[in-house]
Structures are given as C-alpha cells and as structure tokens.
Amino acid sequence: MKNKVYGVIGIKSVMSNWNADFTGRPKTISDNTIFGSDKALKYSMKRHSNDKGEKILYLKSFKTSDKDKIQPRSLKERYEQLFHNINEKTPSKEVLHNLFSALDVMWFGATFAEGKNNISITGAIQIGQGFNYYEDSNVEVQDILSPFRNKEDADASTLGKKIVSDEAHYFYPFSVNPMAYNNYEDILENFDGFTQEAYDKFKEVSLCSATLLATNSKVGCENEFAVFVEGNETLYLPNLATFMAFEKGEDKDTIIFKGEDLLNQLSNQITSIEVYYNPYSTKLDGFDMNKVTLYNIFTREVI
C-alpha cells in the first residue's frame, strides 16, 4: 500500500462507560473534559480481531502457574504462545519477522525487549485521544446491591457502584502512513511493508469494534461515525478531529465537519473521501466536498 489515509472515528456512549479511570469514572483531563484514550479504542479493535482468529500479540491472556493459580502471561510468554520459544540466541530478524506477522504490530507498532532483543517499531497507524464533543454530558452514579456479604458476622449484603456517562460522543483522529516501514523492507526478506490487507482490516474494525464490545460497562457504546480521507504519498493533513462538532437534536443529532475548504483545496492530492454514519439517528453537515461518498455504517451501502 502506498497511499496515506487520515480520518476520524466516532464512538457514541449512552448510559455506559467507554473508558474509565482508576476510580471508575469516565476519564477526564484537568478541565473535566471527558475523553477516551487511544488504548481504549485499540483494545476494542484488538479484542474483536483476536476473536476472529487474527494473531494479536499485545492483548492480555492467562495461564495456570506452577502453584495452580491463574495469572496473566508475560510478554515473553505471550510471544512464545503465538510463535515459539525465544532465547538469547534467537536471531533478531526472526523476531522482527514474527512481530510483523501479528496484526496489531503491523497496525500500531511495538516495543519488544526479550531474549536480548530490543526492538521498537513506530506503527504505520497512529490514533490520537478521543475527546467528547457533547457539552451536556453528565456522570451518573448508580448504587448496586450485591447478593453477597463480605464479612463472616455481617447481617446484610454489600453495596457497590456503577458509574456511567448519560451520553457522550467521542471523536478520535487517526493517520495511516505506509512509508513508516520502508526501512524494514530492506532488512527483512519477503516483507512487503504495510499492506492493503492490513489497512482493509483496520478499516473494518474502525466501523464495528466498539459496537461489538458488549461488556457490562460498555453496553451502550457503538461506532456511530468514521471518515477516511485517502490521498497520494505527498498528502499530509492536520488532526481532522479538530474540525468536528456535534449538536444534539430532538429527532436526530448532527455531526458537523468544518474542514470543507481545506479538503477541497487539496483535492488534487486526495483520491477518495469515505464517510460512514448512522443515518437512523444522525444527520451530517459540512460534507459537501469533492470525491465524497456516504455510507450506512451498519449495512455499508451507499446513501
């Protein structure tokens, strides 16, 4: 793959908690603006891909210890689970080749320090922080009654809490730069760099991984929007999420893009602009640009 891609991925959260901090509340920055980390989005992508049978290295997995306890695998153990044993004599090229065969490493890169190998790969795909653009979001705290006591002499069962946001709309910027792996093509035999297949798989999970991640805290989170601006090797764009806005409506919400002029002026470098959204709950504004195609995010049909 040679073309660069820039875009935004939108995640909607209704009475759920897309990305909690260690207190259980939705993550915020110092001015209390709610945001979701890139790790939260990447986790949903890796989880879904792993469930489909793809080779994913950086994902928590478990084993039974010698003392018959369940514990998470170390990085070395996860590597050896996916590939084979690694030691001080394992050639670095072999390790590097194995790393690139893992889909998450092909997407996001890796930091790998095992068996006297110290490898750092800058990923072809970079995802920024996803800020909530809905100004009236509120954090809701629900009391939960546990069915169990936690002390021997207790007369009542324990209480717990579930914390959610009533509604939030996160917009994540991302970029895809296939040239990030050019140097490795000279080092590794039979390595084609960042592939079209890897990009197509990233595009697919960008449209559904949050919706599919139906955990207790994330039921209510779904992929509601994505835009992919693809262009030639000379194209470079700023953070497209900074051009986004969100307006709450009675019947439908509106997702607004304010970067029309920029993309129209760069039209000679852009090959396509694909916009995916939920037409049943959302309207678009500001996407009247050259080379734009609108799609239903669920059916993938052209609108």
Automatic annotation (TrEMBL):
A GO BP annotation: maintenance of CRISPR repeat elements
UniProt cross-references to InterPro entries, sorted A to Z: Cas7_Csh2/Csh2 (IPR006482)
Designated name of the protein: CRISPR-associated protein Csh2
Organism: Natranaerovirga hydrolytica
Organism placement in taxonomy: Bacteria, Bacillati, Bacillota, Clostridia, Lachnospirales
